[in-house]
Amino acid sequence: MGSAALTESEWIWKDGEVIPWHDAQVHLMSLAVQFGSSIFEGIRAYDTPKGPAVFRLKEHIRRLYDSCAIYRMDVGHEPSTVEQACLEIIRRNGLHDCYLRPMVLRGYGAAGLNPEGSPIETYIPAWPWGTYLGEGALEAGVDVCVSSWLRAHPDTFPVRAKAAGHYVSAQLMKMEALVNGYAEAIALGPGGLVSEGSGQNVFLVRDGRIVTPLLDGTSLRGITRDAILHIAAELGYEVREELVARESLYTADEIFFTGTASEVTPVRSVDRISVGQGKAGPVTMAVQKRFMEVVRGGADDVYGDWLTYVE
Ligand SMILES: Cc1ncc(COP(=O)(O)O)c(C=O)c1O
Predict the structure, then answer these.
(1) Residue 262: CB within 6 Å of ligand 1?
(2) Which string of b and e fits 101-127 if b means at least 16 CB within 10 Å?
(3) Whose CA is nearest to atom 2 of ligand 1?
């Protein structure tokens, strides 16, 4: 996978300060390390004719605070401070196209599961990150499988929160897919219906109609997913959120993933069954093209509040 390795940048924002990349250390006994007590976001900034701009910054920071609320964590900063910090860390690192990973974590202090005594710390690293699902994935599409791992039942992990601990399950899905020669996995929910990818939402197209699984408490409320619901409607497609049976994956004309890292990635096969013609389909490419126009500042007349310009 082309983009598996991390590209370091120079500076990381930490609770109001900007510190060198390698000074952003947490102790082994931090609750974040011991128990996965870390809330995070994944945000992209894109270069535009007016310089770098962050895509849907407010929505991402709102989700960060929602995740923290669910896990009873007080960030200790105003959301506007964290938004400004995201812009600052892009500027300080001189980045253009980049990925930001705000993290609010429980640090060192508590010994057991009761987090009292562990401080809550906020970090914002940013670095250049290319196509998540590998070089050429956005054009050619990817081969995926249905994971043997199910998403958790809604009453187990509150998956609307983006918490690091939830992602040990996502790693099982991803590793299993890669070991078996696929680029990614689609997971079913505990009820056997389609939920989402290990780190992306999924859309299906049949007879020109676009469908994505309902938010049933087994998948993340993706911000790209929401953007695509708007963009697809703008382009004149009928688009619905509904229950999706596994077998719909084998009869769809087109399938695509959406996510901050994955952007809009066509899926060309599922479990070695070709999706449509086994290549990126016309609806997927129309949606992807419009999405890329939007994030690159070419549609501010329609989606004016989706980009926050760094300067
Ligand atoms: C499990 C999961 N689903 C979906 C998504 C896509 O969400 P978004 O479009 O907000 O990045 C992500 C990525 O953040 C994710 O981790």
Answers:
(1) no
(2) ebbbbbbbebeeeebeebebbbbbbbb
(3) 199
- Whole-number Å distance between alpha carbons of 65 and 87: 18
**Interval between CA 77 and ligand 1 midpoint (Å):** 24
Residue-wise DSSP of 4-59: -S----SEEEETTEEEEGGG----TTSHHHHH--EEE--EEEEEETTEEEEETHHH
pLDDT at position 68: 98
| Residues 86/91/93/97 CA torsion (nearest 10 deg) | 80
Q: Does residue 50 have an active-site annotation?
A: no
DSSP 274: E
Residue 169 near ligand 1, beta carbon < 6 Å = no
C-alpha angle 90/259/191, rounded to 5°? 145
Mean pLDDT of 141-157: 97
The answer to whether 255 touches 206, Cβ cutoff 8 Å, is no
* Average confidence (pLDDT) over 293-309: 96
Q: Which amino acid makes up residue 228?
A: I
CA angle 70, 164, 94 (to 5 degrees): 105
Amino acid 304: pLDDT: 87
What is the separation of C-alpha 292 from the centre of its chain, rounded to a whole number of angstroms?
Answer: 16
At 3, the pLDDT band (50, 70, 90 cuts) reads low
> Which residues have C-beta within 8 Å of that of residue 136, sequence separation ≥ 6?
none
Query: What is the position in ligand 1's atom list of the atom closest to the CA of 170?
Result: 1
Number of other residues whose CB lies within 10 A of the CB of residue 277 = 11
